[in-house]
Every structure is written in structure tokens, then in C-alpha cells.
Amino acid sequence: MVGYAFMGRVHSQAWRSAAAFFDLPLRPVMAALSGRDAARVTAAAAKLGWAAVETDWKDLVHRDDVQLVDVCTPGDSHAEIAIAALEAGRHVLCEKPLANTVAEAEAMAEAAGRARARGVRSMVGFNYRRVPALAYARELVRAGRLGQIRHVRAQYLQDWIVDPAFPLVWRLRRERAGSGALGDIGAHIVDAAQYVTDDLLAGVSAITETFVRERPLPEGTGRGEVTVDDAALFIGRFRGGALASFEATRFAAGRKNALRLEVNGSLGSLAFDFESMNELWFHDHAGDAAEAGFRRILVTEPGHPYAGAWWPPGHALGYEHTFTHQAADLLQAVAAGADPLPSFADGLQVQRVLAAVEESAANESRWTPVPG
Amino acid sequence: MVGYAFMGRVHSQAWRSAAAFFDLPLRPVMAALSGRDAARVTAAAAKLGWAAVETDWKDLVHRDDVQLVDVCTPGDSHAEIAIAALEAGRHVLCEKPLANTVAEAEAMAEAAGRARARGVRSMVGFNYRRVPALAYARELVRAGRLGQIRHVRAQYLQDWIVDPAFPLVWRLRRERAGSGALGDIGAHIVDAAQYVTDDLLAGVSAITETFVRERPLPEGTGRGEVTVDDAALFIGRFRGGALASFEATRFAAGRKNALRLEVNGSLGSLAFDFESMNELWFHDHAGDAAEAGFRRILVTEPGHPYAGAWWPPGHALGYEHTFTHQAADLLQAVAAGADPLPSFADGLQVQRVLAAVEESAANESRWTPVPG
Amino acid sequence: MVGYAFMGRVHSQAWRSAAAFFDLPLRPVMAALSGRDAARVTAAAAKLGWAAVETDWKDLVHRDDVQLVDVCTPGDSHAEIAIAALEAGRHVLCEKPLANTVAEAEAMAEAAGRARARGVRSMVGFNYRRVPALAYARELVRAGRLGQIRHVRAQYLQDWIVDPAFPLVWRLRRERAGSGALGDIGAHIVDAAQYVTDDLLAGVSAITETFVRERPLPEGTGRGEVTVDDAALFIGRFRGGALASFEATRFAAGRKNALRLEVNGSLGSLAFDFESMNELWFHDHAGDAAEAGFRRILVTEPGHPYAGAWWPPGHALGYEHTFTHQAADLLQAVAAGADPLPSFADGLQVQRVLAAVEESAANESRWTPVPG
Amino acid sequence: MVGYAFMGRVHSQAWRSAAAFFDLPLRPVMAALSGRDAARVTAAAAKLGWAAVETDWKDLVHRDDVQLVDVCTPGDSHAEIAIAALEAGRHVLCEKPLANTVAEAEAMAEAAGRARARGVRSMVGFNYRRVPALAYARELVRAGRLGQIRHVRAQYLQDWIVDPAFPLVWRLRRERAGSGALGDIGAHIVDAAQYVTDDLLAGVSAITETFVRERPLPEGTGRGEVTVDDAALFIGRFRGGALASFEATRFAAGRKNALRLEVNGSLGSLAFDFESMNELWFHDHAGDAAEAGFRRILVTEPGHPYAGAWWPPGHALGYEHTFTHQAADLLQAVAAGADPLPSFADGLQVQRVLAAVEESAANESRWTPVPG
Fold first, then answer.
1. What is the ipTM of this complex?
2. Cβ contacts of D313 on chain B, cutoff 8 Å
3. Contacts of residue A257 in chain D, CB cutoff 8 Å?
4. Hey, which residues does C261 pair with through a beta bridge?
5. A136 interaction partners in chain C (CB closer than 8 Å)
6. Which run of H or of E encompasses C140?
7. CB contacts < 8 Å between A and D, how many?
8. What angle do CA C33, C35, C37 make, to 5 degrees?
9. What's the DSSP call for residue B2?
């Protein structure tokens, strides 16, 4: 694994836990962790349970005991690391967004295609697909329970930089993060909405904004410019005809991690909020109107995706479980010689949506088709 | 009162009830009801409690015992009736949207201005301003409890025409209704959002859609074309800098009358859903983060707008009460020689927002400023 | 009508509104209002819309233009007024609790029986039966949708006397009110639970408590003793075998009018909270567990009890509507020569439950059967 | 660890994870797992991550590499195993309920006292104390934010045996489980309510019921008698004067793991439902009534108990984390030479409450004091 900050911690927990709950043909061994600072990476490896450390990710990628590389670094290094790992014949799990630019993402998708021909697998880490409630939502859509989809309403609301005194961390600098709320959390709702509806965005009209344009530097004194968006809003149309509304922001005071999705179809509707991640709200429009209403399904039943591997009904899963599910699915795909999803191509498509959003926002919100 | 369908019924209940709960300087007398069909208007007057009937609204407007005309007809007749009533020196309450076009609305606002100079009052019926929770929301905003407003999220979701077999009623025909979801319910969220935030929309980028383009005619056989929008979505910016997202639709299966508003500011946030109309959710961002959260305020306390006139705390008000509050406020303004709000000028401004939405939607979603 | 305080105000609104929304064979005329203080009753009659006043309820009862007497006084005068009215051949609507003692309630039920033989009708005002959600809940139970009922969980939580400085109003004095939370709000949940489940309590085990034993007198200076319960809790069994838990309190800080009912059966469950009075939560246990969950039914559909008389789906009703429904049902029964429900006999049975609760609480919580 | 069923699986995850998230002075080593069936315990150890296996728990207790014994068996073997382990100088974590009888629990508490004198620690596994929301609830109570506590309302609702065809598993047999819903889930709400309020139950009045008295045997054919309660309800008083209502049932259709607690005090109230385990609802009764309401606190902030060790705000924890917190706290206590809580004495006190419930239920619900 490369990187050991927030994503590294949760990925470690996933690798540590997957085999205890899922019947896996391959048992993960946490071979080595890479980071530039020797002392810090050593401490992290001890705490997170990695057997060895490397201070250069290139060495990690080429270790004999490494068969899969998990890329948990900021977006500006994804392309280089992932492509090198794929070329070295290592399977790759790469955190989202796949890259900071469409060009990088294209190169990665091409590398993934070449590697695939040699049996080397790749996956991009849109972990929210593995929330049981969202995986079950997709099942309901694919079973036709929503009928013709008319509306998609997606929001990802956070509030961690509402305070103008919050420092200029790497996520607020374009050269590291690519974009702001758009790439960080907007990418998640684009993927989640497309995944649940089994459809793709055809075009968008967008606005973006940076509310606080200067912030204190994280170390030392002085202030620096915020070079990414604080919020991005767009409306759009899916290929299948649904209208869509998306909003990603870090300025929604009181909303901590509100990834919300509502889908309305001719036969039913779904609603979800990650702040209550074990619940899916489903309205069945096909029956008697007097009995109809949004029902709160606790997605913890044996018949729900992933849930049967864990605890009895009503015993909640948490954020980290989505990564454990991701790890389990990836290992099963690798063992089966199958392609795990979402692929790098899926990650590239999301990147193209994000690029269309930025293009529209820069161009008087004009309608901008998503290529592909 | 002119008209006795849905709006006429609820306005009647308001006129009947206002004086029993509010201390009014003027006591309303329900003098006469107007409608074209003599038998039906007579039956309606008997049931709704009106003392006399007229089959021509012009006669009603000029009756000696009529001092205030309440216009409850479809939008295509608002301008003619309201202007005639104002010119006849009658105070006017006109249902929203003020008119079907900006030109009509401008003529009405001008007539209202002329009448005002003669002490004749006018008001447009955006009843949702008189939901206690929304009136209280505005108080919180004006008291600075939300700080700098960053985001407005407004939706008005209904589902009464999801079924393609639903007939082509007058609300689905442009010549009667002006527009579809946009003017009917979109107008309400535009007004409500501007009212609560005490700010105005500066510009928009929009899409609209008619999902079901032909429907059975309401009487007899055959089918006709739907000439209004089924749904309208737009993003925008307020003059004060807030980003906004609006959605009005009649295709949100399971949402019956979900007028939802969420406002995020630098010091706090508000959320409201008319389906739970006695509740306002308020997040105070100024205090200790460990204790913070959206609190469910039951807006039924004596200290809340309008609520003290009714029942003890926790005893819900309903939809019709918003009209009773409107009637009481109008009577108080008339007695005081003051201008009731929202004025026809306010109604015109909302009309301009709707027109900008339609213009943007017709023009590749391009950014379209709201004049004025 | 006798009395014009809280109950008088809401009953007046019911009489004023019923005929405008329900097709009634009899149209109520608000003939006369009675109260001891001439000035105050005159002002109340003007405001509430009563045509005449009486300062002695005996005169009201015998007026020629009075055919129905609505008793809205405190419980200590219910028996005397209601019996006199019945004997004078007036139909009677009597607020709950029917009386302050079982003996009084028995006398009233006997008087009602005698009057009934002469075609004179009587009804006790358990208005919560006419919440559409609770009436619909009963329909679901009677249709077998819950199967064998196992559990009833009923609470009525208020908080208006949490503050020890709140004065010693008449509701806190046994000689006026009969009991405290028990008779005032406990009576409502006993009736509501029995009504929804279509079953009766067989026995109870109870505790009661007066947390604040002395309070300031409402007028002048000094303090007086609180002679009623602040809270009453009991567990019990229904005749059909369900276990039950009841709690009535005025000390639940933050709960304003939380009449809550949850019923669990072998095939389904129901949950209700009057603080969200337009919602009924229904869990259908008969289907696929993966799709099951409590659904939030907005009880505002044309197919729901009472709702069709009012507004389109999703347009909330409020507290007062339960009284309007009660008035409409009573007038329909009178016109039809039928007995309205709940009868005085039903009111007596509730009184017996309350008496069993007090007996158990006074007797080491020992199991106490409910007679009858 | 002894036992590897449900509790064994979740305890294993706790031991595996604790050191990766908490800074622990001792790092747990998962030395050995014990179970009677050699093949099954070997497979479980491999899957759950235990280094060795024993088929006799006595051998496990005396292994040199075992310093702490985690007892995850049914209640009938708790006393024997825990006492043996303590006498062998091993620290002990014992699942709840501490024992099947008060006599066993007394013996265990005595053994724990003797062991403590030798520096050997013991803890009973009431894991719900380590739900961050409940730990934070206790902090609020202890900080005086609720004032004088008036009401405690506790329910633990499940539905896994609603179907009469559900088999006669060990939890439905008195000789293995001690009691039914009472000991299994009733024990949890007794502990949780006492923990949050920092007070103890003084006495109770109870009813219990077995709705389905015969069930199919789990293996083979035939039916057997259910010898435990399906549901237990009781009312009671806390030593500090609060009134309480408790209900534990496995027959609440649609409630999966609804451990609910509501506490009302003179200055505030709290509400919790484990089905939404990351939320605590807090009503502050001390401020302006117009602004007051139950606020939904997402208990995922750095300032909340345990939460800072995990993810950013709004990223949910799940059921298993309560066990990880328990493991971390136990290890910290052992390292510090301190007594972990809840102690075996605390477990014994809960057992006495359960015994009082059964005694009251067998004795006409008569008031039964809780000794001690």
C-alpha cells in the first residue's frame, strides 16, 4: 500500500478484516507499506499492521512479495504509481478520483487495458458502491421496481471548511487535489448516481464557487490562495432521459458526510443519506395509494448485499465496511480471473463528467455534453 | 371571491376562521361568490358560506357590499379581474402566480401602484410565507443566526401526474396555466426561498422537460398535447452570493407536497419540508461541535409567528392555516392603511425569475440574469 | 355549548367548519354559548361566532333553539350538565374524561341509556379517534393486516409543568380535574389504544407520582398543594392476550403533545406520534424481509378516513380537524337515528381503567383487573 | 477466547482491530481459541485469526501464552469458566448476562473480588456502554445538563421469533439461557439505563409472557417446550426518584435491534435508538422555548467518546466498534492496574434486577425491591 493517511488507515482495516468475514479464495497478506518519511511510515506500519516498509513507492511496487498495489496517495501521484504498478504486473486498487485530469485518467485506463490483456486487474476505489443500501438500491432499479427513471437528486454535503480560519491543506490546492469539492466528493455522487441508476450522464450545466479565497497556511505564518472550488452545482440529463441535480459542497454547516441520493421513477422511488447509511428508503408506487409511503429498510438482512457476512439484522455496519467489501470483491475477482468493478475506464468516465462540469462553469453554465 | 375550486374552498375557510383566532380591526363578511355556472356557484356559495352569488365577476367587483376581491381563478384571468377590481377601488388578494406572463404581471403591478396612491391595497397569495415554520425561519435569518448564506436548496416535489393516463386538465395547458410545474409550484419555492433568505435571485441556468407529451382529454375521447413543463430544474446565484438549486416537478413518485427548503450559512443552517409543516430544523453552528446538530423545532410555541393564536404547543396546524394567516395579515394591513406583503411587485419579480428560467432552458441552459 | 376556554374554542371551530367540508344532512347552527361571567361569555360568543349567550348552563340546556348541548367544562361539572341535558331531550357531546369518578360516569352512562330509548344521542369527545392516521390504523387492524396483536406501547408525553414555578391551575387540583396526567391525557391513550386494536384492557399494574407537590397559587400570593398525579405509568394485558405499556406524563421535557402508539402483531406493526399527526408508520411483516420496513404513510389520500373531504394529498390537517370530524360524525349519527361512537358507555369503561390504575398504584402496584 | 459463535466473531474483530485505532500500552495477541468440536474450532480459528486451538476450555485457561480469557459461551457456563480463569490468575472478560442465576453471579463477583486483590482484573461485556452516543449521553447527564431526572423509558425490541415455525434454539431454553428476552436483551437496557442516568433501580413491578409455547426442535423432528419468556415488561423507580418503564421483547415485528432509551429531566432530555446508533437526540430545556427542540447529534466528532480514534465526522461506526472500544478500555485498565467497568459486581446488580422482575411477574406484579 502506498500512503497511510485517512485512506491508508481505512484500507488497512479492510485488508485486515476481509478474510474473517468473507469466504475468500485468496487471503490477503499485508506485506509492505510505502511512505517518504522513514520514521513515520515505520510507525504507521506498526500501528496499521504492515509487515515491512519502503520509503520509495517504486521499491514497493517491485517487491517480490507484492502482488497487488493499493494506491492511497493524493490524486497528483495516482497516474504515475498506478501505471508503474500495472506495468510491473501488479494488480492495482487506486483511490478515487482516478486522476487529477482527463489526460492522466486516459493514460491510466489505457495502461489498465494493456495490463488486463496480461491478466493484471485494476479497480478504482469508489467505495460507496459497496454501501449495502446503495448496492441494494441498484438491485431494485435493475429489477424494474422503479420503472422509467425521471429524476435523480444527488448531494454530497460537508462542512469542514466553513470556518475561514481553517488552513490551506493540500485538498484546497489545485496542483495536489485537481479540484475541490467537485473531485473529492462530487466524484462520489456522480459514480453513485450512475451506479444505482445503471445509466450515464449525457450532459451538464454547472456553476462552481470558491467562497473563501485565501486561507492561513497550514504550517508557519502567512496566507495562501485557495485554488480549488468550495462548491460545485450542476444540473444534467441522463442518457435514459432522467433529469438530474448534483451538488457537492464543503460549506453546508451541520452536514457532516451527507451523501444523499434520491431517485424517482414511474413505479417507485428511492432515497438514501449516508449519515444514516444502514437505511434505504423505498416507495413502491405500484400498489394501493392508501398504503403507500417511503419505507425505511434497514439494509442489514441476510438477503441484502454484503450484510449476511456480518451480524444479525439491525446491527449496524459503518463507514469502513464499504472498504472491506471492496477488498473482498477485488480479491474474488483476481482469483476468478475476472475484471473487478468499477474499472479504470469507469473512473475515466467520471473524470470526463467532472471536466464537463468545469467546462460548463467556465462558459456561462452552457450545456456541455459528456463525451463517450 | 371569484372562483370556488380548490383555492376557493381554502380561501373561504380562511375568511370564515380568521376573526375567531386573530384580533382583527375589521371583521370579514363573506358577501358574494362569483362563477360562470349559476347552479354550481349557488351550490358552492351555500356550502362554503357566501351570502350571495354572481355569474359575472364584473358584477361582483362592482357590488356595493364588496370592498375586497379575492381572485381564485386560473392564471389566465388574473390580470383582467385584478386590474378591474383595483380600478373599481376594491382591495385585491390575487392567487399566485400573479399572472401567466411578465407583461401581464407588469400591468398588474402598475395598476397596483396606481391604486395604492388612492389607498387601495393589493397582495399576491404566496401562502407558504405564512407557514409558521417558514416565517420563523426568516426571523432566524434576519437575526443573523445563519451568518453569511452560502447555499439554498429548494425543491417542490409532487407526483399527481406520474401516471400517463392522468388526463389533460387545465393545469397542463399553457393557454390556461401559463406554465406547468414551474409556475404552479416552482413559483412557490422561488418566493419562499427569497422570503426566508431576505435576498433575491440574480441569475439562473435551467432545464425543463415534459416527460409525457400527450394525455387523454378530460372529457370525452381522444388525446391532446401537454403544452407545459412537467418538471423544471435550475441552479442560480443570489445577489448576496449564495449558490442555489431549485427543482419543481410533478413526477416525484411518493412525494405528495414536498416543498423543501434548506439554507446553509456560515453560522447555521435551516431545513424544512412542508410534508412535516409544523417542524423547522435548525443547526446552530456557533457553539460546541460536540453538542451541535439539527434540532427539530415544533413551531407551535407562543413565541412563534402566528402559533400563539391557535392551540397549545405540539398541537399541529394544517395547510389551510397559512391562508387564514394571510387573510388576517391582509385585513390588518387594510385597516392600518399599510401595504400588505407580498405585493404585486413581489409577484412580478417572481414572474421574472420564471421567465429567466424558461429563457435559459430554451437557450442551451445559458446563464440568464434576472432583471430588476 | 357550555364553556369557552381551550375546548370551547376548538369545538367552535369544528361547528363552524363541519358543513363546509362534509355533506351533512343537518347543518349546525351555533345558537348559544354559556358561561358564568356575563362580560366574558359575551366577548367569547362574539369572537367564536355564537348567536346568543347564557350565564347559567341550565338556561342554555332548556332553550328552544338548542337541540344539542356540547359540554366543554372541567370534569367536575360533566355529570350534572350532561345528565340534565339528556333529560331535557338534548343530544349531548361531552368532553373527556367522561367524569371525575366511576360513580359519576355510571350515572351518565345510565342517563345516556335512558335518553337513547327516547332517540336522544350522546357521545364522549375522544377526539383522537378522528385523527385520520388513527382511524386508518384501526382499519388496518380490522382488516387483519397486523395478525395476532402481541404488543401495545402507548405514551402521552407533555412538558408544560416541568418548571416548579408553573402555577397551581385547576388541572392540578383533584376536586376539579379528578386526576392529573392520568385522566387528562392517560384517558386519551387508553381510548386510542383500545380503539385502534379493537380490544379492551383486562388488567393493569401501575405507579403514579407527583414530582412537584406544592406550587404557587395562580392568583395572588402563596402556594398550594398539588393534589393530582404528575405522571402515571402502567403495564397491562388486553383481553386478546397482548401485553401493553402505558405512560402519561406532564414532565417529559421537550415533548409537547406526543401521543404515541405502537402496535406489534404477528403480521405487521403500526407506529404513530401525534407530533407528526399526518403520518402513520406501517410495517408489513408478511412479505420479503429484504424489502420490509416501516413505511411512512401520509394519511392525506382520498382513500383515507376523513382526508378526502379536505385538500389534495400531502396537504396537512391539524389538531382542530379531529374535532371537525367528530362534529360531522355526530351530526350524521343524529340525522340517521344512530348511536355515535364513542358512547358514554365507552367513556365509562375508560373511567374504569383509570380507576384500576389508581387502585393498583395505591396497592403496591398489584395486578388489578378492569371490571366489565 | 472460549466460544466462536456470534459473540466470538465480534470479539475476534475487536481484538484484531483495537490496537490499530487506539494507542494501547498492551498489544493484544490472539493466542488461542477453545471449542469442543476440534474440526469446527480449527476452522473458526483460521477464519477469525486465532493462532492455536483447544478443545477443552480448561486447557485454554492454563496455557502459558494466555493472560486474559474472553468468555463468549452461553450463560450456563459463564460461572465455571470465569471463576476457573480468575483463580488461574487470568484476567477475564465475560459476556453478559454475567450468569443465569443470582447465586452464580454472586459466586463470580466474589471470585472477582478475590482475584482483584491479586491484581487480576474482570469485566462484564455490556458492550452498549461503549456506543459513543450512550457514553456521550452519560457525560451530558453527569454534567447536569438534564437536571433532576424524572423519566426513563427503555425498550429493546427485536422480532426474530415472531414466526411460530422458528425453531427451539438454545436461547429459548431456560437451562442454557437462564431466561429469554429478559436476560438476553432486557439485561442490556437495565445496564444501559443505569449507566446513562448514573443511578440504580430501586424496585419494579413486572409482567412476562411466552406467546408461543411450543416450537419445532432445531434438529430432527418433533416439537419442544419454550421454557423462557418471549417478552418482559416492567415499570419501576430509580433510587433518585425517576419513574421508569422497561420492555424487552422478541415479538416486535419490524424492529430488528431497537435498543431505545429516552430520559427526561428537569433541564433536558435525551433519546437514542440503536437502529440509528450514531445519533443522539438531545433537548436542552434551559433556553428559549422558541428555539428549543430535540437535536440530532451525530456522535462522530473528535470531542465525542471513542469517535476521535476512527474517521472524520459523519462517517458512521457500526455494531462491532462497541466491542473494539470495550477491548481497548479493558487493555488500558489492565495495563494501568485499574479496575475495568462494568465489573462483575455491576453484572451481579443487573442480575438482581432481572431476578426482581421475575419475582414480581410470578407474584401478581407486586412491587418488588431490588436488593443491594
1. 0.97
2. 289
3. 312-315
4. C154, C272
5. 290
6. helix C132-142
7. 102
8. 130
9. B
Nearest Cα neighbor of D223 from D165, D170, D180, D159 is D165
* Per-residue pLDDT tens digits for C244-263: 999 999 999 999 999 999 99
In this complex, the residue of C289, C295, C301 whose CB is nearest that of residue A301 is C289
Residues of D with Cβ-Cβ distance to C207 under 8 angstroms: 205, 235-237, 243
Q: What is the pLDDT of residue A372?
A: 83
Q: Which residue of A has its CA nearest to D157?
A: A314
Given an 8 Å threshold on Cβ–Cβ distance, is C297 in contact with A296? no
For residue C210, give every residue at least 6 positions away whose Cβ sits within 8 Å of its Cβ, in sequence order, or none.
C180, C226, C228, C229, C230
Q: Which of B86, B226, B78, B114 is nearest to B164 (CA)?
A: B226
Distance CA A334, CA A322 (A): 18
3-state secondary structure of A194: helix
What is the Cα–Cα distance from B126 to B98, expressed in whole angstroms? Answer: 9
Report CB contact under 8 Å: D243, C231.
yes
Q: Model confidence over A345-364: pLDDT tens digits?
A: 999 999 999 999 999 999 99
Per the CB < 8 A criterion, the answer to whether B81 and B1 are in contact is no
Name the strands in the sheet holding A68-71, side by side, starting at the edge strand that comes first in the sequence: A68-71, A91-95, A122-125
- Secondary structure of D3-60 in the HEC alphabet? CCCHHHHHHHHHHHHHHHHCCCCCCCCCCEEECCCHHHHHHHHHHHCCCEEECCHHHH
Looking at the partner chain, which of B12, B17, B316 has a beta carbon nearest the beta carbon of C319?
B316
- CB-side exposure of B129: number of CA atoms within 13 Å? 23
Residue B59's SS3 state is: helix
pLDDT bin (cut points 50, 70, 90) of residue B372 is confident
Compute the distance between CA of residue D213 and CA of residue C349 in angstroms, rounded to an integer: 32
Query: What are the backbone angles phi and psi of residue C241, rounded to the nearest 5°?
Result: 105, -10
Domains along the sequence of chain D with CATH? 6-127 (3.40.50.720), 131-315+349-361 (3.30.360.10)
Residue C213, SS3 per DSSP: coil
A→C contacts (Cβ < 8 Å), by residue, are: 136, 282-283, 288-298, 301-304, 313
Q: What's the whole-number mean pLDDT along residues C104-125?
A: 98
Q: At what angle do helices B321-336 and B6-21 cross, to 10 degrees?
A: 60
Q: Nearest CA to CA, how far is D283 from chain C (Å)? A: 6
Tens-place pLDDT, residues B84-120: 999 999 999 999 999 999 999 999 999 999 999 999 9
Q: Give whole-number Cα distances, A203 to A209, A242, C151, in Å.
A: 20, 11, 53
Choose among A369, C285, A133, A39: nearest CA to B365.
A369
User: For chain D, what is the total number of helices (H) and then of strands (E)?
Assistant: 11, 16
CA distance, residue C219 to nearest chain B CA (Å):
21
Q: What angle do CA C91, C96, C98 make, to 5 degrees?
A: 70
C-alpha span between D351 and D46 (Å, rounded):
35
Mean pLDDT in residue range D317-331: 98
The angle at the Cα of A213, spanning A212 to A216, to the nearest 5 degrees, equals: 85
Which pLDDT band, with edges at 50, 70 and 90, does B219 fall under?
confident
Q: Do B319 and C321 touch (CB under 8 A)?
A: no
CB A201 within 8 A of CB A236: yes
Which chain B residues touch D286 with a CB distance below 8 Å?
A: none
Decide if A314 and D49 are in contact by the 8 Å CB cutoff.
Answer: no
Identify which of C236, C235, C234 has the alpha carbon closest to the alpha carbon of residue C249: C234
Q: ω into residue B97 within 30 of 0, thus cis? A: yes
Distance from CA of C171 to the nearest CA of B (A): 15
Model confidence pLDDT, tens digit, residues D163-219 = 999 999 999 999 999 999 999 999 999 999 999 999 999 999 999 999 999 999 998
